[in-house]
Amino acid sequence: MEPFLEPYNYYFLREQTQMLAQTHRSVNDRSTIQAVRSLAFDAIKEELSHLTQEELAAVMAIEKITDSQREVDQYLATLRTFVRPFKQPSEAGVKKAFAKTKKIQMPDWEQIDLKDYSFYAWNDMGQQSKFILYYQNNKLQGLQGNLSSEIKKGICTICHGTSGVSLFTVKGKVNKDGQYKTKGNYICYNSDECNHQLQTKEHFETFIEQIKAK
Ligand SMILES: [Zn+2]
């Protein structure tokens, strides 16, 4: 089977898997376990309704999960083989995506497991910046914004998880007084963790749409 899961699908399924195993370990009442299971399976089928029958059948091996950690590990290892990695951009592609920026720290792609990333982002605190690479309609896009070095606990606008977040601001349009409008969002300071918490494409897309609308 060709890879058919996006990294965020994998992290969604990983959370469901861990939640199911935890339920089996901590709950005695069979009907409660049954209710939790069927809710999870319905959520999975809805989230992954675009898959083929064969692909969905492979994912639904999650129904075998009980309290065993070995089963969890095996299932997740199998899922991982179905993940489509973030497409590695060329150096020219990255430069083009950040055309306004002269100094770009190129990611060392060889050291990065691209199956972890729905988008790829890194901080360059020398420039007080976060650089975000993502694909829109298969085209590589870049978003650079100012990143505060002050980290606090909060909800991230991208992944909707609770983590160490920092204010990320992007220069918007020029207003009547000739000044740039800037608006900020609190997002995960660490974008690796952000990717691990991102479970649907919609959250990331909404973040991008909001920024572009500014
Ligand atoms: Zn995040």
TrEMBL record:
Residues 4-87 form the Elongation factor G-binding protein N-terminal domain. Gene3D superfamilies: 1.20.1280.250. This is FusB/FusC family EF-G-binding protein. InterPro entries: EF-G-binding_C, EF-G-binding_N, EF-G_N_sf. It comes from the Bacteria. Residues 100-202 form the Elongation factor G-binding protein C-terminal treble-clef zinc-finger domain. Pfam families: EF-G-binding_N (PF07299), FBP_C (PF16571).
